[in-house]
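## retry 2 of 3
previous attempt timed out at serialization; input unchanged, resubmitting
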Amino acid sequence: MCRHLGYLGPPVPLSSLLLDPPHALATQAWAPRDMRGGGTINADGFGVGWWPPGAAEPVRYRSAMPIWTDAALPPLAAATSSGAILAAVRSATVGLPVVETAAAPFTDGRWLFSHNGVIRGWPAAVAALARGLPVEDLLTLDAPTDSATLWALLRARLRAGEPPAKAVAALVAEVAAAAPGSRLNLLLTDGTQLIATAHGHALSARAGRGAVLISSEPLDASPAWRPVPDGHLVVATTAGLEMTPNP
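## retry succeeded, writing output
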Protein backbone atom coordinates (compact mmCIF):
# COMPACT_ATOMS: atom_id res chain seq x y z
CA MET A 1 0.00 0.00 0.00
CA CYS A 2 3.08 2.25 -0.25
CA ARG A 3 4.67 4.93 1.93
CA HIS A 4 5.36 8.50 0.87
CA LEU A 5 6.59 11.87 2.09
CA GLY A 6 6.76 15.49 1.05
CA TYR A 7 9.10 18.26 2.27
CA LEU A 8 9.23 22.04 1.86
CA GLY A 9 11.80 24.25 3.57
CA PRO A 10 15.49 25.14 3.54
CA PRO A 11 17.46 22.92 1.16
CA VAL A 12 18.38 19.54 2.67
CA PRO A 13 20.11 16.47 1.21
CA LEU A 14 17.71 13.86 -0.14
CA SER A 15 19.46 11.41 2.18
CA SER A 16 18.20 13.34 5.23
CA LEU A 17 14.69 12.11 4.39
CA LEU A 18 15.23 8.90 2.45
CA LEU A 19 18.11 7.22 4.28
CA ASP A 20 19.49 8.89 7.40
CA PRO A 21 16.69 9.22 10.02
CA PRO A 22 15.94 6.30 12.37
CA HIS A 23 12.70 5.63 10.50
CA ALA A 24 13.63 7.05 7.11
CA LEU A 25 11.57 6.26 4.02
CA ALA A 26 13.99 3.47 3.10
CA THR A 27 13.40 1.90 6.53
CA GLN A 28 9.65 2.27 6.14
CA ALA A 29 10.00 0.29 2.91
CA TRP A 30 11.09 -2.90 4.69
CA ALA A 31 9.94 -2.23 8.27
CA PRO A 32 6.73 -0.15 8.17
CA ARG A 33 4.98 0.36 11.50
CA ASP A 34 1.47 1.32 10.43
CA MET A 35 0.33 -0.38 7.23
CA ARG A 36 -3.17 -0.98 8.68
CA GLY A 37 -3.56 -4.34 7.01
CA GLY A 38 -2.42 -3.02 3.64
CA GLY A 39 0.56 -5.31 3.07
CA THR A 40 3.78 -5.95 4.95
CA ILE A 41 6.67 -4.41 2.97
CA ASN A 42 7.10 -1.87 0.17
CA ALA A 43 9.51 -3.58 -2.18
CA ASP A 44 7.94 -2.92 -5.60
CA GLY A 45 9.84 0.18 -6.62
CA PHE A 46 10.41 3.73 -5.45
CA GLY A 47 10.80 7.24 -6.71
CA VAL A 48 11.88 10.70 -5.65
CA GLY A 49 11.30 14.09 -7.25
CA TRP A 50 12.93 17.38 -6.33
CA TRP A 51 13.44 20.94 -7.52
CA PRO A 52 17.04 21.95 -8.30
CA PRO A 53 17.90 25.54 -7.28
CA GLY A 54 16.10 28.00 -9.53
CA ALA A 55 14.31 25.32 -11.55
CA ALA A 56 10.67 25.81 -12.55
CA GLU A 57 10.02 22.08 -12.85
CA PRO A 58 11.17 19.08 -10.82
CA VAL A 59 13.67 16.35 -11.61
CA ARG A 60 12.57 12.76 -11.01
CA TYR A 61 14.38 9.48 -10.31
CA ARG A 62 12.38 6.22 -10.31
CA SER A 63 13.16 2.51 -10.15
CA ALA A 64 11.28 -0.78 -10.11
CA MET A 65 13.70 -2.27 -7.56
CA PRO A 66 13.40 -2.06 -3.76
CA ILE A 67 14.86 1.19 -2.49
CA TRP A 68 17.39 -0.60 -0.27
CA THR A 69 18.90 -2.48 -3.25
CA ASP A 70 19.70 0.55 -5.42
CA ALA A 71 23.45 1.09 -5.08
CA ALA A 72 23.25 4.37 -6.99
CA LEU A 73 20.84 6.00 -4.57
CA PRO A 74 23.02 6.66 -1.46
CA PRO A 75 25.66 8.75 -3.26
CA LEU A 76 23.02 10.51 -5.34
CA ALA A 77 20.91 11.30 -2.27
CA ALA A 78 23.90 12.52 -0.26
CA ALA A 79 25.09 14.83 -3.04
CA THR A 80 21.68 16.27 -4.01
CA SER A 81 19.95 18.95 -1.93
CA SER A 82 16.60 20.63 -2.45
CA GLY A 83 14.03 22.71 -0.63
CA ALA A 84 11.09 20.84 -2.21
CA ILE A 85 10.98 17.04 -2.29
CA LEU A 86 8.39 14.30 -2.81
CA ALA A 87 9.33 10.63 -2.49
CA ALA A 88 7.55 7.27 -2.30
CA VAL A 89 8.14 3.55 -1.95
CA ARG A 90 5.66 1.12 -3.54
CA SER A 91 3.81 -1.98 -2.47
CA ALA A 92 2.03 -3.10 -5.63
CA THR A 93 -1.57 -4.26 -5.47
CA VAL A 94 -1.79 -7.96 -6.36
CA GLY A 95 -2.07 -8.37 -10.11
CA LEU A 96 -0.69 -4.95 -11.04
CA PRO A 97 2.66 -4.61 -12.82
CA VAL A 98 5.94 -4.01 -11.03
CA VAL A 99 7.61 -1.58 -13.43
CA GLU A 100 9.50 1.68 -13.08
CA THR A 101 6.68 3.73 -14.58
CA ALA A 102 4.23 2.50 -11.92
CA ALA A 103 6.31 4.05 -9.13
CA ALA A 104 5.44 7.48 -7.76
CA PRO A 105 5.98 10.34 -8.05
CA PHE A 106 3.95 10.92 -11.17
CA THR A 107 4.63 14.26 -12.80
CA ASP A 108 3.23 16.83 -15.19
CA GLY A 109 4.93 20.17 -15.63
CA ARG A 110 5.48 21.64 -12.17
CA TRP A 111 3.44 18.96 -10.36
CA LEU A 112 4.53 15.85 -8.46
CA PHE A 113 1.94 13.35 -7.20
CA SER A 114 1.83 10.19 -5.11
CA HIS A 115 -0.94 7.83 -4.00
CA ASN A 116 -0.66 5.64 -0.91
CA GLY A 117 -3.49 3.09 -0.94
CA VAL A 118 -5.78 1.21 -3.32
CA ILE A 119 -8.97 1.78 -5.31
CA ARG A 120 -11.28 -1.10 -4.46
CA GLY A 121 -12.74 -2.70 -7.58
CA TRP A 122 -10.38 -0.88 -9.95
CA PRO A 123 -10.80 -0.39 -12.87
CA ALA A 124 -14.54 -0.99 -13.10
CA ALA A 125 -15.32 1.02 -9.96
CA VAL A 126 -14.00 4.26 -11.48
CA ALA A 127 -14.79 3.63 -15.13
CA ALA A 128 -17.61 6.18 -15.06
CA LEU A 129 -15.26 8.84 -13.67
CA ALA A 130 -12.59 8.03 -16.28
CA ARG A 131 -15.05 8.44 -19.17
CA GLY A 132 -14.70 12.19 -18.81
CA LEU A 133 -10.95 12.09 -19.52
CA PRO A 134 -9.49 12.79 -22.95
CA VAL A 135 -8.77 9.53 -24.77
CA GLU A 136 -5.13 10.60 -25.16
CA ASP A 137 -4.75 10.77 -21.38
CA LEU A 138 -6.01 7.22 -21.00
CA LEU A 139 -3.75 5.95 -23.78
CA THR A 140 -0.68 7.54 -22.23
CA LEU A 141 -1.01 6.50 -18.59
CA ASP A 142 2.37 5.87 -16.98
CA ALA A 143 1.18 2.35 -16.13
CA PRO A 144 -2.11 0.39 -16.02
CA THR A 145 -2.62 0.95 -12.27
CA ASP A 146 -5.11 2.56 -9.94
CA SER A 147 -2.56 5.20 -8.86
CA ALA A 148 -1.86 6.25 -12.45
CA THR A 149 -5.60 6.50 -13.04
CA LEU A 150 -5.97 8.73 -9.99
CA TRP A 151 -3.21 10.96 -11.34
CA ALA A 152 -4.93 11.25 -14.71
CA LEU A 153 -8.17 12.24 -12.99
CA LEU A 154 -6.45 14.81 -10.77
CA ARG A 155 -4.27 16.16 -13.57
CA ALA A 156 -7.36 16.86 -15.67
CA ARG A 157 -8.78 18.98 -12.85
CA LEU A 158 -5.53 20.89 -12.44
CA ARG A 159 -5.26 21.54 -16.16
CA ALA A 160 -8.82 22.87 -16.11
CA GLY A 161 -7.74 25.47 -13.54
CA GLU A 162 -9.37 23.98 -10.45
CA PRO A 163 -7.62 25.13 -7.25
CA PRO A 164 -5.28 22.31 -6.13
CA ALA A 165 -6.71 21.73 -2.65
CA LYS A 166 -10.26 21.74 -4.01
CA ALA A 167 -9.26 19.35 -6.80
CA VAL A 168 -7.67 16.87 -4.37
CA ALA A 169 -10.58 17.00 -1.91
CA ALA A 170 -13.19 16.60 -4.63
CA LEU A 171 -11.38 13.69 -6.27
CA VAL A 172 -11.08 11.80 -2.98
CA ALA A 173 -14.78 12.33 -2.30
CA GLU A 174 -15.79 11.13 -5.77
CA VAL A 175 -13.58 8.05 -5.77
CA ALA A 176 -14.59 7.13 -2.21
CA ALA A 177 -18.24 7.28 -3.25
CA ALA A 178 -17.63 5.21 -6.39
CA ALA A 179 -15.33 2.67 -4.72
CA PRO A 180 -16.21 2.29 -1.02
CA GLY A 181 -13.42 0.95 1.17
CA SER A 182 -10.68 2.51 -0.95
CA ARG A 183 -7.55 3.88 0.68
CA LEU A 184 -6.91 7.31 -0.76
CA ASN A 185 -3.92 9.02 0.82
CA LEU A 186 -2.90 11.47 -1.89
CA LEU A 187 0.12 13.77 -1.86
CA LEU A 188 0.55 16.64 -4.34
CA THR A 189 3.10 19.44 -4.61
CA ASP A 190 4.20 22.13 -7.04
CA GLY A 191 7.28 22.97 -5.00
CA THR A 192 5.55 25.76 -3.08
CA GLN A 193 2.77 23.91 -1.28
CA LEU A 194 1.96 20.40 -0.13
CA ILE A 195 -1.58 19.04 -0.32
CA ALA A 196 -2.29 15.68 1.29
CA THR A 197 -5.21 13.51 2.39
CA ALA A 198 -5.59 10.88 5.07
CA HIS A 199 -8.28 8.50 3.89
CA GLY A 200 -7.98 4.95 5.15
CA HIS A 201 -4.26 5.04 5.81
CA ALA A 202 -1.63 6.50 8.13
CA LEU A 203 -0.29 10.04 7.79
CA SER A 204 1.68 12.38 10.05
CA ALA A 205 2.94 15.94 9.72
CA ARG A 206 5.61 18.14 11.29
CA ALA A 207 5.97 21.88 10.86
CA GLY A 208 8.22 24.58 12.29
CA ARG A 209 11.33 26.72 11.68
CA GLY A 210 10.32 27.50 8.13
CA ALA A 211 9.89 23.88 7.08
CA VAL A 212 7.07 21.37 6.78
CA LEU A 213 7.26 17.59 6.41
CA ILE A 214 4.36 15.24 5.68
CA SER A 215 5.01 11.50 5.84
CA SER A 216 3.10 8.23 6.01
CA GLU A 217 4.98 7.55 9.25
CA PRO A 218 7.15 9.84 11.43
CA LEU A 219 10.82 9.69 10.48
CA ASP A 220 11.99 10.00 14.09
CA ALA A 221 10.78 10.32 17.68
CA SER A 222 10.42 14.11 17.65
CA PRO A 223 7.36 15.28 19.64
CA ALA A 224 6.69 17.80 16.86
CA TRP A 225 5.02 15.09 14.76
CA ARG A 226 1.21 15.27 14.66
CA PRO A 227 -0.99 12.44 13.37
CA VAL A 228 -3.40 13.51 10.66
CA PRO A 229 -6.91 12.28 11.55
CA ASP A 230 -8.56 9.99 9.04
CA GLY A 231 -10.82 11.85 6.64
CA HIS A 232 -8.78 15.05 6.75
CA LEU A 233 -7.14 17.28 4.16
CA VAL A 234 -3.76 18.92 4.82
CA VAL A 235 -2.61 22.08 3.06
CA ALA A 236 0.92 23.14 3.98
CA THR A 237 3.56 25.70 3.07
CA THR A 238 6.81 26.69 4.75
CA ALA A 239 4.71 29.09 6.87
CA GLY A 240 2.76 26.23 8.46
CA LEU A 241 -0.01 23.76 7.83
CA GLU A 242 -3.76 23.48 8.16
CA MET A 243 -5.82 20.30 8.68
CA THR A 244 -9.50 20.32 7.82
CA PRO A 245 -12.11 17.56 7.48
CA ASN A 246 -12.43 16.42 3.87
CA PRO A 247 -15.96 17.07 2.62
